[in-house]
Amino acid sequence: MAVLSGERALVGSRISVQHVRDIRVTRNARRLLREELTRARSASGRKCLQCALDNVPKDAVVVTWRKALTGRALHKDGLLALEAPRPRTRKALYIFLHECAHLHLHCNTSKPRHRKEYEAEMYAHSQMRAAGIPVPESMTEAARRYVAWKIQQALARGAVQIDPDASRFAARALQTLHSHAGRNDLKDR
User: What is the arithmetic mean of pLDDT over 54-58?
Assistant: First the structure.
């Protein structure tokens, strides 16, 4: 008894010649697609790495490659040190560049923390775009939330003045935080 599946006729355990050709074509297409994706990922990784190398301060040392997507820039006794994830993906590169920004821009400054974080976010955005690496909207929104969080911390510590550029950048995220805070106040009552 023949079972029809599209144009392929399967008779018992016998497979038609056309079906075998289709399988070969599909396997070759998958192999080519896999190879193409591997090449694209390698090229993207090289582009991320080159962007990272172009932005490391000349006196800086990477002391730790973190597995987590977090980072830290250290400046102590003239030593510039980075702890960041390896810049293999866009997100890891973004974090790496953010930490490089702290070393480039904030070694000997007394700016408020929210201003430093805003400048580091802008630096990471601009360097990625300059290297031709697109910055997804989700990363921009995460940056807005991060700066908004730093602004809220500053306000909680009694900051008298908030940087207007940082405030403008984080405005949408601040509105969201304020609306959630209002709901939490109502829940407590």
Answer: 87
